[in-house]
Amino acid sequence: MSAKIDIFSAAPALMKKWMGVSVDVAASLEPNLIELVKIRASQINGCANCINMHTAEARAKGETEQRIYLLSAWREAPCYSDRERAALGWTEALTRLSEGHSQASAQEALRAEFTEEEQVKLTLMINIINGWNRLAVGFGLWIEPAAAKAAQAAA
């Protein structure tokens, strides 16, 4: 698939800011937790680019193949902590807002595992990855993980 538009060239100043906020928010919580959230939202949104990128990032940060493969069935898999489960539940609740489900149980689990500040940070991360998913799917982006890392460093 080839990109329909180069978003970094089309709006360089805004994309540089978007990238900067993305990097800052991603650095605000545990790296592996952030990657699990990014992968799960990307699975829900069907974003091949982001799934490819964030599974590679997760592996580089020490995440296991088992936990990456089981992510789409995290509720049934015993290998995730309560904190990770709360984050994944919140990710699904916010990513699937349009389906009209209540977020009450996901928010209850979130409150049990995350401080208020962490709840905001996680929610920002979920919003950011959903935004990246929409940019990537909408414009047909495919960025190899090494190229993304170089772009992050330049931001």
Write structural notes for this entry.
- This protein is mainly alpha-helical.
- It has a single domain, classed as AhpD-like (Up-down Bundle), CATH 1.20.1290.
- It has nine helices and no strands.
- The protein has helices at 7-10, 12-26, 31-45, 48-60, 65-69, 82-95, 104-113, 116-139, 145-154.
- The longest helix is centred in the C-terminal third of the chain and has 24 residues, at 116-139.
- It is globular and about 40 Å long.
- The two termini are 25 Å apart.
SSE inventory with pairings:
Layout (H helix, E strand, L loop, with lengths): L6 H4 L1 H15 L4 H15 L2 H13 L4 H5 L12 H14 L8 H10 L2 H24 L5 H10 L1
Task: Give a brief rundown of this model.
The chain is an all-alpha fold. It contains 9 helices and no strands. Helix 6 packs antiparallel against helix 7 (104-113) and helix 6 (82-95) crosses helix 8 (116-139).
Major sheet characteristics = none
The dominant shape is globular
Termini Cα gap: 25 Å
Which second-level CATH architecture applies? Up-down Bundle
Low-pLDDT residue intervals, each spanning 5 or more residues: none
Structural class: mainly alpha
Helical stretch count?
Answer: 9
Beta-strand proportion: under 5%
Keywords:
mainly alpha; 0% strand; AhpD-like; 9 helices; 155 residues; globular
